[in-house]
């Protein structure tokens, strides 16, 4: 953790503070011993007459007297720092590399105690996994980022990962990861809400499930045509189906509208600011198909935004503003910053979210995450959860790193505790542990 200490400056501040406090005590003791006058009159006279003798003309001294006559809640408000000021204080704090949830930061002006929402057990568990990864010669990822948040509050309980190319970077906040099939969450939501699709809606495609040729985007039915339900197309991440939905049925306007509703192309007002991701359409019809199914390198997201997308599904369409700071206190123990849970966006209608939950559950039970979650119904921890998710994979433009995604949710059937999570692994030459496997580890560890 970075700590900035200037001991002489701090001692000077403390000494000055103690002197002023003694002066104030003398002042108020004089008021108490004065007889025959009301407290209000003595206080008013003392402020006008004695103030220049007892207090210096510094800003801090003036504020001490001025606040004596204002309500207590106004005093508290006046000492609160803004989120921008907080960002300046914590910008170099290493949240991703520690299993602590309390941090101490010294600056030339003040010493701060930062209390976060990090789950020390879960983050510590994952840090041990990441430490082992770095020792591997085969299967060590180029980048990995893991984010876990409370879906209904937006509180971040895990924020960790690493980037071999830039050890000082926070890979959870970087927004240059190709979204790949994670974008099918947005396309599917738009199809449910605008085209009135449900889990059983019958759709058609020709050719391979995971390719996207122009000929596959034609609305033709012949003896080579496959019929597939909407829920199965989502669970198995069928590119031609979602390419046709994007190009033929939704179009530019709807894709833009729902991408905006979910929060693409925005700077998110997190305590550690980040960009959500990039989504941009153009006039090329084939590009709409690429966008609709996520088969492109133009659409990008950050891992923390990946968790936010899923939180909308499990939170009745609402996305909470993410936060990692619970509160901040100064050297006197005074709270100068306190998190306030805030709704960020309403992405979709509750009824749309309900259908999306079913689609994402099928990804776990019969779709692309089936292998990793096999046996979940018999597992003593996982069997108590409602689990949903979406996978995605795509090489970077240079075809050197293959990005492997899982973003999903889990809800305890009994307690209703719900988390949203996002895992992205940038594999190099050898494919190591996949994102879905990390997701399973996280759920078993957190809900055990």
Describe this structure in words.
The protein has 448 residues and is an alpha+beta fold. It has two domains: 1-72, no CATH class; 120-323 and 341-447, Beta-lactamase (3-Layer(aba) Sandwich), CATH 3.40.710. It has 14 helices and 18 strands. The chain has a five-stranded antiparallel beta sheet, sandwiched between helices. A four-stranded antiparallel beta sheet has the order 1-2-13-14. A hairpin with a 5-residue loop joins strand 8 and strand 9. Helix 10 (239-262) packs across helix 11. The radius of gyration is 28 Å and the shape is globular. The relative contact order is 0.13. The model is unreliable at 1-15 and 17-78 (pLDDT under 50).
Q: Which features characterize this protein?
A:
2 domains, disordered N terminus, 5-stranded antiparallel sheet, single chain, alpha+beta, 448 residues
Indicate the multimeric state.
single chain
Strand ordering within the main sheet: 4-3-18-17-16
CATH uppermost class of the largest domain: Alpha Beta
Approximately what portion of the residues adopt beta-strand conformation? Answer: 15-25%
Total of domains:
2
The main pleated sheet reads as: 5 strands, antiparallel
Radius of gyration: 28 Å
Total strands: the figure is 18
Q: What is the CATH topology descriptor of the largest domain?
A: Beta-lactamase
Residue share in helices? Answer: 25-40%
**Overall pLDDT score:** 87
């Amino acid at each position: 953790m970075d700590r900035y200490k200037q001991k002489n400056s701090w001692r000077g501040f403390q000494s000055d503070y103690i002197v002023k406090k003694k002066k104030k005590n003398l002042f108020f003791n004089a008021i108490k011993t004065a007889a025959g006058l009301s407290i209000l009159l003595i206080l008013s006279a003392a402020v006008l007459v004695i103030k220049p003798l007892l207090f210096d003309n510094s800003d801090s001294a003036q504020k001490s007297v001025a606040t004596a006559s204002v309500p207590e809640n106004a005093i508290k408000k006046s000492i609160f720092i803004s989120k921008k000021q907080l960002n300046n204080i914590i910008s170099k704090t290493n949240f991703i590399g520690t299993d602590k949830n309390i941090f101490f930061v010294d600056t030339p002006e003040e010493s701060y105690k930062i209390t976060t929402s990090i789950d020390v057990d879960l983050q510590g568990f994952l840090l041990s996994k990441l430490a082992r990864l770095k020792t591997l010669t085969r299967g060590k990822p180029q980048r990995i980022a893991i984010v876990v948040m409370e879906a209904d509050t937006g509180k971040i309980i895990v924020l960790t990962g690493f980037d071999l190319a830039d050890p000082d970077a926070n890979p959870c906040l970087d927004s240059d990861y190709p979204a790949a099939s994670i974008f099918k969450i947005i396309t599917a939501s738009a199809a449910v809400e605008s085209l009135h699709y449900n889990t059983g809606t019958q759709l058609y495609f020709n050719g391979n499930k995971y390719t996207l040729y122009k000929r596959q985007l034609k609305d033709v039915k012949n003896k080579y045509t496959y019929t597939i339900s909407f829920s199965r197309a989502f669970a198995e991440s069928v590119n031609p189906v979602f390419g046709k939905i994007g190009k033929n049925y939704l179009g530019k306007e709807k894709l833009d509208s729902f991408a905006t509703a979910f929060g693409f192309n925005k700077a998110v007002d997190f305590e550690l600011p980040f960009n959500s991701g990039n989504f941009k359409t153009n006039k090329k019809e084939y590009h709409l198909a690429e966008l609709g199914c996520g088969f492109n390198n133009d659409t990008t997201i950050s891992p923390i935004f990946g968790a936010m997308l899923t939180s909308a599904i499990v939170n009745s369409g609402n996305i909470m503003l993410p936060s990692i700071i619970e509160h901040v206190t100064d050297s006197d123990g005074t709270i100068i910053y306190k998190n306030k849970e805030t709704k960020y966006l309403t992405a979709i209608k509750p009824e749309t979210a309900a259908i999306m939950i079913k689609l994402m559950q099928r990804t776990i039970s019969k779709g692309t995450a089936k292998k990793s979650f096999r046996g979940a119904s018999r597992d003593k921890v996982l069997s108590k959860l409602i689990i949903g998710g979406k996978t995605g994979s795509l090489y970077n433009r240079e075809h050197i790193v293959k990005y492997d995604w899982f973003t999903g949710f889990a809800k305890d059937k009994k307690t209703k505790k719900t988390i949203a999570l996002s895992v992205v692994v940038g594999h190099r030459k050898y494919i190591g542990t996949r994102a879905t496997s990390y997701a399973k580890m996280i759920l078993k560890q957190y809900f055990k």
